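Repro:
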Amino acid sequence: MIAITGTTGQLGQLVIKELLKTVTASDLVAIVRNPAKAQALSEQGVTVRQADYNDEAALTAALAGVEKLLLISSSEVGQRATQHQNVINAAAAAGVKFIAYTSLLHADTSPLGLHVEHVATENALAQSGISYALLRNGWYTENYLASAPPALEHGVFIGAAGEGKIASATRADYAAAAAKVISEEGHAGKVYELAGDEAYTLSQLAAELSKQSGKNVAYQNLSEADFAAALKGVGLPDGLAEMLADSDAGASKGGLFDDSHTLSALIGRPTTSLAESVKAAL
């Protein structure tokens, strides 16, 4: 059996959808905090089990009979290292044979502050005695396109990435890779640096928004501190605003760039282009 954590999250839902193309529903276990949100999965024949990243005992019970686990990283930045350790401990106790983990692009050398908890989790996996693969995901294109509506309204796309190249891909692209690695054999011990085929700067993203919308959108580069302040000013929680500003600053140093084309090679198709993503967002 294959278990997936965080299955009602944005990435998790897409992974399950992808897995159901090749794996029998009864061979899948969806581990969720709130089973009510996974009713559609139950109706499709997927086994739904309740557990929280903070509850090692519940996780151990939820992983009973599971051979492979896709550990989708927790969304709670600052608590992730402990939460992921709980999942790894539970997997070991339940006899799980293989774990695939959604880490961060070039986690071991990344300038993004987010890398710290991912590296801690990668180290925990290495010490667990369980076979594993690392899915080092780059940025989601959707992270930037969430800013498209205010950019179109005000004619300005703000950020702190300078002219840093960003090789992002869509959640669906990363989900296809995760589904492949967790459902196939031969991926143990692999480290996949996953990113989009096409890299762009935020100036080029603004130009693509302008081109497709017919509205003039300019990119305005801010300092990391000013960008964080601007995000807080529109209501983002302090921690999230600071994380996004830090990530943009990391992008300016090459932290979100990779040109290995590992992701497209793994999923057997080109990654979704920026133009396609902008079109879908508009």
